[in-house]
Amino acid sequence: MFQSAAVREMMVGSAELASGLGYGSASEACGTMKCDWAGLKDRRDAYVKRLNGVYEGEWKSMGVDVKHGLASLVPTGGTPAVQIEHADGGKSTVTADHVVVAVGGEPSHPDVPGAELGISSDGFFDLETQPSKCAVFGAGYIAVEMAGILNALGTDTQLFCRGDKVLRNEMVFDADVIATLMSEMERHGPGVLTNARVSELVKERDGTTTVVLKDGSKHTGYDCVLWAIGRHPVTRGLGLEECGAKMSGQGFVHVDRFENVLDSQNAPVPGLHALGDCTTTGWELTPVAIAAGRRLADRLFAEEPRARFVYEYIPTVIFSHPPIGTIGYTEAAAKKEFGEDSIQVKKATFGSLLYGFNEPDHKVMTTLKLVLQGPEERVVGLH
């Protein structure tokens, strides 16, 4: 979806760029350039279905016994057993030397009247037609990405966030980079409404949805409201607590740096491991979970006892508009880790050569920032 949005954005949103390069009638030639949403959805769904089949085929070729059903852990005094409730009502039990919990998470919904009128980020992929006007609630990377994609595809999009900016955790997202993103969204969209706390959603007679905020203001005419206010792990009912696992108040599984599940005394629960979105590692990204799983397999089965995934230096891309790439410590995180006096930064904000022929106030700006530590100026962050 991001690639589709990026293509339209380059051809329509950058028509001024094309004009500057000699294509004076670029805007007229492109027109509105509507997305074939139904065709795109069909092709995407077919691609995902094919991938699912590929994975199942690979598992079977490797001798993996795939079982479908609702699983839960059963205490045994050693490594927990796994009990499976099947669709036909039958039950089976599986035992092993090691059990890995990788159940992931699911989108959260607010507890406000009319919340059911909105969809989640999962529901976005079920939309049969492109929304004409969409309200996106949230401030994390999913909210920013969804709002940017919809806006670039031509949907009238507003992003509502409860704080004063998006991606506001300065331990994860560098403040200078986010300042540039906020500035560019203000100029090019999607529109961002800060300090916006939802009170209720109201269904109108014409079928549209009205957003009512706690300050009393009303925002009307939406045919889609998308909740992207966070995710929660789907660990409830798995029997983790009964097996001695230490859980956070939000339902995350406490693990050590080797993906061992910890008990209330911070000692590993025998044979029980967890990785991915359901853990306290803090990284809710599929490639991170895959990499952590590989390191866990190396440690358990490839005679690499020290193998583990290092979370401190994960290269990350946020598919915002413009996109963000980051690795290592933010300035705030580096000062907390190494001390403020040992950190210096080098940064610049500029319009890239891609927009060289645009007027100064119509360039999409780029911010580049290095976070350096110590007298040797070791690079500990690049954003």
Task: Give a structural overview.
The protein contains nine helices and 21 strands. It has 383 residues and is α/β, with parallel strands linked by helices. The chain has helices at residues 2-13, 15-20, 26-30, 37-61, 121-124, 141-152, 175-188, 286-301, 331-338, and strands at 70-74, 81-85, 91-94, 99-101, 105-107, 119-120, 133-137, 156-160, 191-193, 198-203, 209-213, 218-222, 224-227, 231-233, 260-262, 268-274, 316-318, 324-328, 343-351, 365-373, 378-382. The mean pLDDT is 91. Helix 1 (2-13) packs across helix 6 (141-152). Strands 6-13-7-8-9 form a five-stranded parallel β-sheet. A five-stranded antiparallel β-sheet has the order 17-18-21-20-19. A hairpin with a 6-residue loop joins strand 1 and strand 2 (81-85). The radius of gyration is 24 Å and the shape is globular.
First-last Cα distance: 24 Å
The oligomerization state is single chain
Name the strands of the widest sheet in spatial order. 6-13-7-8-9
Largest sheet: 5 strands, parallel
Helix count from the secondary structure assignment: 9
State the order of secondary-structure elements, H for helix, E for strand. Answer: HHHHEEEEEEHEHEHEEEEEEEEHEEHEEE
Structural class: alpha/beta
Mean pLDDT score: 91
Instruction: Name the poorly predicted regions.
Output: none
Strand content: 25-35%
User: Got a strand count?
Assistant: 21
Computed Rg: 24 Å
The percent range for helix content is 25-40%
Choose one word for the global shape.
globular
